[in-house]
């Protein structure tokens, strides 16, 4: 099973690289919507981009994922650009982004986890970014700063650092 998961992850990464660096016949202009506050969009037209690596995870009181499987996610890479987002094994093609700026406790309290448990200063606002792919699949990313992102799956929070 472990070899199958490794093969599957490598296959996803390979497909992502081909989609990222190959021609894309469905390429649309990326749309960005800022719901509140001020947000500087980088040159590629997305609120964050590049390669990101899972360096840690924290479980809320509501977690549902197997802890043995969680340990295997450490070191997993996420790839983000204007054409594709590869995040936790999911690919979002031709994404658009909705961004809102919130206080950390407003966002994380609904998951029964304290922002301080995730290393987030309560006095600092964070950017919650909805990523919506062309097939209407979606996810959320919390941008803590230019080098740190957090995603949530099954009550577990995955902490990414920029590679």
Protein described:
Residues 1-21 form the signal peptide. Keywords: Signal. The two termini are 28 Å apart. The protein has helices at 2-21, 67-73, 104-108; strands at residues 32-34, 50-59, 77-80, 84-87, 90-93, 96-102, 126-132, 138-145, 148-153, 156-162. The protein has 163 residues and is of the alpha+beta class. It has one domain (2-23, 30-162). The chain has a ten-stranded mixed sheet with strand order 1-6-7-8-9-10-2-3-4-5.
Helix-strand layout with pairing:
Blueprint: H1 2-21, E1 32-34, E2 50-59, H2 67-73, E3 77-80, E4 84-87, E5 90-93, E6 96-102, H3 104-108, E7 126-132, E8 138-145, E9 148-153, E10 156-162
Parallel strand pairs: 1-6
Antiparallel strand pairs: 2-3, 2-10, 3-4, 4-5, 6-7, 7-8, 8-9, 9-10
Q: Please state how the strands of the largest beta sheet are arranged side by side.
A: 1-6-7-8-9-10-2-3-4-5
Helices and strands: which structural class?
alpha+beta
Number of domains: 1
- What is the helix/strand order? HEEHEEEEHEEEE
* Count of alpha/pi helices: 3
Radius of gyration: 16 Å
Signal peptide: 1-21
Keywords: Signal
């Amino acid at each position: 099973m472990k070899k199958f998961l490794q093969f599957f992850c490598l296959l996803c990464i390979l497909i992502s690289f081909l989609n990222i660096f190959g021609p894309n016949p469905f390429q649309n202009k990326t749309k960005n919507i800022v719901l509140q506050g001020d947000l500087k969009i980088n040159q590629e037209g997305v609120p964050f981009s590049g390669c990101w690596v899972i360096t840690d995870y924290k479980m809320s009181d509501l977690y549902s994922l197997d802890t043995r499987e969680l340990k295997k996610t450490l070191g997993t890479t996420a790839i983000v650009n204007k054409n594709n987002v590869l995040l936790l094994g999911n690919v979002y093609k031709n994404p658009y982004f909705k961004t809102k700026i919130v206080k950390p406790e407003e966002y994380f309290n609904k998951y029964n986890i304290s922002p301080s448990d995730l290393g987030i200063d309560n006095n600092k606002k964070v950017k919650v970014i909805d990523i919506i792919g062309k097939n209407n699949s979606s996810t959320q990313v919390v941008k803590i700063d230019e080098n740190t992102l957090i995603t949530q799956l099954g009550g577990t929070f995955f902490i990414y650092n920029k590679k």
